[in-house]
User: Fold this.
Amino acid sequence: MGSRVIAIPHNGNLSAGQMFALDDFHGQPLTTDYAQTRSYWEPIYEVTQIKGDGETHPLVSPDDVFVDYET
Assistant:
C-alpha cells in the first residue's frame, strides 16, 4: 500500500545560499526542466517561523545555537 507524505524545508538561511542557488553543482545555469522537476517535488517552503519554537530543548541540544532563541 502506498503512502502520501510531505516534508517542509525550513531555515534556508543556514545553507549560505545553496538552497536557492541559480547554478547547478557543475556551475551551469539551472534549466527549465530542472526548475519544473524541483517545483513538483518541492511544492512548498516555510517562509516564516517563530525562533525558539523548535523541536528540541537546550538541555537536549546544548550545541544548537537556535534552541530557545528569544523565548
Observations:
- Residues 32-41 form the longest helix (10 residues).
- Residues 50 and 65 are 15 Å apart (CA to CA).
- The helical segments are 32-41.
